[in-house]
Design goal:
- By secondary structure, the protein is of the alpha/beta class.
- Strand 6 and strand 7 form a beta hairpin.
- The radius of gyration is 20 Å and the shape is globular.
Length: 253
């Protein structure tokens, strides 16, 4: 969403958002992303900007086809594709197998402190190492395969412009989070994501496509708050009066 906002209001870009959000029902509210998109669309239209959205399973062939049809009808081609899917589950569009990602270490048990944002309590948590199957499933969900499927589909439908850029997001973090992040199952998926960027750039060299993985500042999001230890690290990270030395002392105490 932040990428869509900056592209639209800083560069007057026409944007199509693809996401899976639950709409409001008589007995309950919608998911936060639904309201965020509604607010963005209202502001974009008021500013005279093109903004349309597709709500559905972005992993599916159906949504890829629907998106391509909308691009053909309204825009012709797109010159930037931002891939930022955060989901614990992916049903493969070809095999039909449902893969579930896990947040685990690889090869060793890991114990450290985390913070519960709901209670404010700091507790200790232990993570068990992942099996080979769990690692493979995590890569299938969070790696670069679906990103490449999207780019291939757009290219084959001739809706991907020459000199286009495609971007995915990542995060590295400090040594204290390495066992559960960069050296854990998520890190294995990020390795695959980065390898996919290089492969796509080479594969579509004739179109001069550039695929990048952007490493960004840590943020407290709904997704990141579910990662043990990460919330405590980020909480201290944003307190500029504390040094990295103090941070490590707090987390490793």
């Amino acid at each position: 969403m932040s990428s869509r906002i900056t592209s639209a209001f800083a560069s007057d870009a026409a944007t199509i958002g693809v996401f899976f959000e639950k709409e409001p029902q008589p007995e309950k509210t919608a998911t936060p992303g639904w309201y965020n998109t509604a607010a963005f669309s209202k502001a974009a239209h008021a500013a005279g900007l093109y903004a349309k959205s597709i709500n559905g399973d972005a992993f599916s062939n159906e949504i890829k086809t629907k998106t391509i049809e909308l691009i053909k009808a309204d825009l012709g081609q797109v010159d930037m594709v931002i891939y930022s899917l955060a989901s614990p589950v992916r049903t493969h569009p070809v095999s039909g197998i449902t893969h579930r990602s896990v947040l685990k270490t690889i090869g060793q048990t890991y114990t450290n402190k985390t913070v519960d944002f709901h209670s404010g309590k700091i507790t200790e948590i232990t993570l068990e190492p992942a099996s080979d199957e769990e690692i493979a499933n995590t890569v299938a969900v969070m790696g670069g395969e679906d990103w490449e499927l999207w780019i291939d589909a757009l290219n084959q439908a001739n809706v991907l412009a020459d000199n286009a850029i495609t971007l995915a997001y990542s995060y590295i973090g400090p040594a204290v989070t390495e066992p559960i992040y960069r050296k854990g199952t998520i890190g294995r998926a990020k390795d695959h994501l980065e390898a996919t960027a290089k492969a796509m750039t080479e594969k579509l060299k004739a179109k001069n496509l550039k695929a990048y993985v952007s490493v960004n500042k840590a943020l407290v999001t709904q997704a990141s708050s579910a990662i043990p230890i990460i919330p405590l690290y980020i909480t201290v990270l944003f307190n500029s009066t504390l040094t990295d030395y103090v941070l490590c002392k707090i987390i490793n105490k």
